[in-house]
Design goal:
Layout (H helix, E strand, L loop, with lengths): L2 H21 L3 E8 L2 E8 L2 E4 L2 E2 L8 E3 L2 E5 H5 L5 E5 L4 E6 L2 E6 L4 E4 L2 E4 L5 E3 L2 E5 H7 L3 E5 L4 E5 L9 E2 L6 E2 L4 H7 L5 H7 L7 H4 L2 E4 L4 E5 L9 E6 L4 E7 L9 E3 L6 E8 L3 E8 L4 E7 L2 E7 L1 H4 L3 E6 L9 E2 L2 E2 H17 L5 E4 L9 H11 L2 E8 L9 E5 L11 H16 L3 E6 L3 H4 L5 E8 L3 H8 L2 H18 L5
Parallel strand pairs: 3-15, 27-30, 27-31, 31-34, 32-33
Antiparallel strand pairs: 1-2, 3-4, 5-6, 6-13, 7-8, 8-9, 9-10, 10-11, 12-13, 14-15, 16-17, 18-19, 19-26, 20-21, 21-24, 22-23, 23-24, 25-26, 28-29, 32-34
Helix pairs in contact: 8-13, 10-13
């Protein structure tokens, strides 16, 4: 081989090697936690640059999700001079640059640019406790150009040119309006197009002035009220009527000068309707539920927000307690006692103890002398619960029968190791320890409340009402049974924290 051919071969090799090295970034492997699940992520590294300078030392690297790039909101967009605010109570990102405000709700296909609804190609997510938002959408909405280099897998934001100032003007006034919050946008700006009217779904009120002080976010099921009356959060009372499928809120004082009585009808997955009734002494807000709700009430920037949540979105540990029988189904009767009365008292005693501990939320299938159907009892447990305990009293034809036993059927492990057997075992241990009764062991039986339960569940038989001695023990040990149920649940959730 002559020198010329050797040089050509060497140059060709170097070019091929350089191109291959240039085109290949390292692969990164991560465990991404979002939407209450862990996901394995293995992909080529992605970079974000501003005017050609890569951003380094990001606490969370840019990732590709559903074929779109997500980036940490604050670190990327504060680097181009924007202001980034995280509204924790409503899980929304506010990005402000000059006169442009972008509002991005987490896990929503909608975002708002100066109050106008926009459809996202991919949702923002909270991933590994960092708020990750779609890079291209936000960049272009702020008026910047973005360039993608497939060789280096770098998204470069061209930030040298300053975007033009964007303003929003309402039809009802000639003054320019600066948009500061999504709530204010929806409440203060009348829709100017059919699309805006559909997205905002602004209600028609008798008084146009007062209508500007109340708004409903149909996308996220959040009620907003302008806090012109300086309402103190301590003056707001809540009543969770989950067995009647409504959540009621009362605000003391006369708000008739600020807001009207109005009913919103989203008929969404969670909310059937939201009725606001203003009276001289108080204002009542009733959320009629399609799903059992929890509520976050907060105030910011002069607005009160009433954000609807599913119970498992708010509470990390939830137990459902079922007082057996009730109403026209008295259960076992002996020694001047009725099973339905004893089980209700015991369940209420346990509930009272859970109300003193904010770490565990307790729901009850009944709190009065009613008889919910078996389906209603298990449906409540399956919808909201992490564990289900049904309290019963035993009976036998022989007055000599005695002792405490618990039942379970299917494992129903939700991924944290807690099974129905472990619930039954813990409940039995607690009851035996506190009541001193005879151990009749953990058993299995094809009982409907166990058969239809999809969460760890146990039916407990405290003792025999047909035995005079145990009937006396039970009637005088209501609080001990409540304590046993409470202590057992606390121990179980400490050992097996629920997995969302």
């Amino acid at each position: 081989m002559n020198i010329k051919k050797l040089l050509i071969s060497l140059v060709t090799f170097l070019l091929l090697f350089t191109t291959a090295a240039y085109a290949s970034n390292r692969y990164i492997s991560l465990t991404l936690t979002y939407d209450y699940q862990s996901h394995k992520y293995n992909a080529e590294e992605v970079f974000v640059a501003i005017d050609g300078t890569k951003l380094t030392d990001l606490s969370m690297p840019p990732i590709i999700l559903n074929d779109y790039t997500l980036v940490p909101a604050r670190e990327v967009f504060e680097a181009i001079g924007a202001t980034v605010d995280w509204k924790k109570d409503i899980e929304q990102v506010y990005i402000t640059y000059n006169d442009t405000l972008i509002v991005i709700p987490v896990n929503s296909q909608k975002a708002y640019v100066n109050g106008q609804s926009k459809t996202l190609d991919t949702e923002a997510k909270i991933i590994n406790n960092k708020t990750m938002i779609p890079l291209r959408f936000v960049t272009t909405a702020l008026g910047f150009e973005i360039q993608w280099d497939s060789n280096t897998r770098t998204a470069n934001i061209i930030a040298k040119s300053v975007p033009e100032t964007t303003t929003v003007t309402t039809e009802t006034t000639t003054e320019t309006t600066t948009i500061t919050t999504q709530a204010a946008t929806m409440a203060a700006t009348e829709p100017t197009t059919e699309t805006a009217q559909s997205d905002i779904q602004q209600m028609s009120f008798t008084s146009s002035d007062s209508s500007r002080n109340i708004s409903y976010d149909y996308e996220n099921d959040i009620l907003y009220i302008k806090n012109t009356a300086k309402i103190n959060l301590n003056a707001i009372k809540e009543q969770d009527n989950y067995n009647s499928r409504n959540y009621t809120i009362e605000i003391e004082g006369n708000l008739s000068a600020s807001i009207p009585s109005v009913t919103f009808e989203p008929d969404s997955e969670k909310v059937k309707s939201c009725a606001v009734t203003v009276a001289p002494d108080k204002t009542t807000i009733v959320f009629n539920e399609n799903r059992i709700l929890a509520m976050d009430i907060n105030q910011y920037e002069g607005w009160l927000s009433f954000k609807t949540l599913l119970p498992k979105e708010k509470y990390s540990k939830i137990v459902v307690i079922d007082a057996g029988h009730g109403g026209d189904a008295p259960g076992a009767i002996a020694n001047d006692l009725q099973e339905k009365d004893l089980t209700l008292k015991m369940a209420l005693s346990a509930q009272e103890k859970f109300e003193q501990n904010s770490s565990v939320k307790c729901y009850m299938t009944r709190t009065t002398d009613t008889n919910p159907s078996f389906d209603a009892r298990t449906s409540l447990a399956n919808e909201v619960g992490d564990a289900f305990i049904s309290i019963h009293i035993n009976s036998a034809t022989s007055s000599e029968a005695h002792g405490t036993e618990t039942f379970c059927q299917y494992a129903n492990d939700l991924g944290n190791g807690l099974t129905s057997y472990r619930v039954a075992e813990e409940m039995l241990d607690q009851l035996l320890n506190k009541l001193g009764t005879t151990n009749r062991n953990v058993k299995t039986n094809d009982l409907k409340v166990l058969r239809d339960s999809s969460i760890p569940a146990s039916l407990i038989e405290i003792g025999f009402i047909s035995n005079a001695n145990e009937a006396n023990i039970m009637s005088n040990s209501i609080d001990l049974v409540g304590q046993a149920v409470y202590d057992g649940v606390i121990n179980l959730f400490d050992k097996y924290p629920p997995v969302r």
